[in-house]
Amino acid sequence: MTDQDFTTRITVRGYETDSQGHLNQAVYLQYAEHARWEYLHAAGIRQAELVAKGVGPVVLETTVKYLRELRAGDVVDVSCAFVWREGKTFQVVQHLTRADGVLAAEVTGVGGILDLAERRLVADPREPLRALASDPGLLGL
């Protein structure tokens, strides 16, 4: 993690576990998605504002490394950091860490900002986010 990672806390709910008693693999992706939206929200960006501007974030690639199990009742901190680079895409780095400090999973991905009318990625994904954010520094902009 970096100093600029954003973190949100989630408690694993019983109905999210599978027959072995650990967090269902698909729910890791839901937690990661929740943390990304919380990150944007903390920076002052609302989903409705993105849509009104005619853009929306998209996930282009996701990799999950499952390192330790999460079980019902576990408290997990889900971090999120955007790694900006040149071009139409950016990297998303996320860690799911149990309250006891054990790293449970790493989620990495590639994202972009979709022009909803053209159905194409915008040339610079930083621009629409910077324009909408009340705290662009939180996003590393």
Can you characterise this structure?
With 141 residues, the protein is an alpha+beta fold. It has 3 helices and 6 strands. It has helices at residues 25-42, 47-53, 126-132; strands at residues 6-11, 55-66, 75-84, 89-98, 103-115, 120-121. It is elongated, with a radius of gyration of 16 Å. 26% of the residues are buried.
The gyration radius over C-alpha positions equals 16 Å
The unreliable regions are: none
The number of E-state strands comes to 6
What distance lies between the first and last C-alpha atoms, to the nearest angstrom?
A: 18 Å
Count of DSSP H/I helices: 3
> What sequence of helices (H) and strands (E) makes up the elements?
EHHEEEEEH
Shape: elongated
Structural class: alpha+beta
Mean pLDDT metric: 95
Biggest sheet record? 6 strands, antiparallel
Question: What share of the residues lie within helices?
Answer: 10-25%
Strand content: 35-45%
Blueprint of the fold:
Blueprint: E1 6-11, H1 25-42, H2 47-53, E2 55-66, E3 75-84, E4 89-98, E5 103-115, E6 120-121, H3 126-132
Antiparallel strand pairs: 1-3, 2-5, 3-4, 4-5, 5-6
Summarize the structure.
This protein is α+β, with helices and mostly antiparallel strands and 141 residues long.
Notable characteristics:
single chain, 141 residues, alpha+beta, 6 strands
